[in-house]
Design brief:
74 residues, mainly alpha, 86% helix, elongated, DUF6327, DUF6327 family protein
């Protein structure tokens, strides 16, 4: 526990704590809004569509490469 020598030190620490409380509150609100946005139906559908398209191109590319490698060993 900290020992204070005067009221000025106490006031300073109280101001710092108040500012830290405001910062923490803003962080929570920001996190809440980001989570809310990421869980919206529109965002979920967009992310799912992006994932399907990426997997489609990866699968197509891998099939082409594997087919090309397989042709070399025939």
């Amino acid at each position: 526990m900290r020992e204070y020598k005067n009221f000025k030190e106490i006031d300073r620490d109280l101001k710092l704590l108040k500012l830290q409380k405001e910062i923490d509150k803003e962080k929570v609100l920001l996190s809440y809004n980001q989570t809310k946005e990421s869980l919206s139906p529109k965002r979920i559908l967009k992310d799912a569509a992006d994932s399907v398209l990426k997997n489609r191109y990866v699968l197509k590319g891998a099939t082409s490469v594997l087919g090309f490698i397989g042709d070399k060993f025939k």
